[in-house]
Specification:
mainly beta, 3-stranded antiparallel β-sheet, 3 strands
């Protein structure tokens, strides 16, 4: 018999081959660590490339900047507070003209 026919016969007969699996790390010696608590202050800046929307009266080009405070409470709980500012261009339309 060929190896292919042996494999097919084993599959049809329900013979299971032992599966090889990786055994994980002992938790006491794992290379992974939980993220600790604490806070991080993050400044940021960016550029907006808007087109004003279909009627060209929405926000257009400009810059944005701000400051964000990320507070990590425990393993799964976090809180972020931020102050954001944008200096964008826009088209003013006088409805009386």
């Amino acid at each position: 018999m060929t190896p292919r026919s042996l494999a097919l016969a084993a599959l049809l007969c329900g013979v299971a081959l032992p599966a090889a699996a990786q055994v994980g790390h002992d938790p006491a010696h794992s290379p992974f660590r939980d993220v600790g608590g604490g806070a991080t202050l993050v400044p940021y800046a960016g550029r907006v490339g808007g087109d004003g929307g279909p009627v060209h009266v929405g926000p257009q080009d400009g810059t944005t900047y701000g400051l964000r405070l990320d507070v990590r409470g425990n393993k799964f709980l976090g809180l972020a507070l931020g102050v954001h500012r944008g200096t964008l261009q826009r088209r003013l339309i006088n409805p009386f003209v």
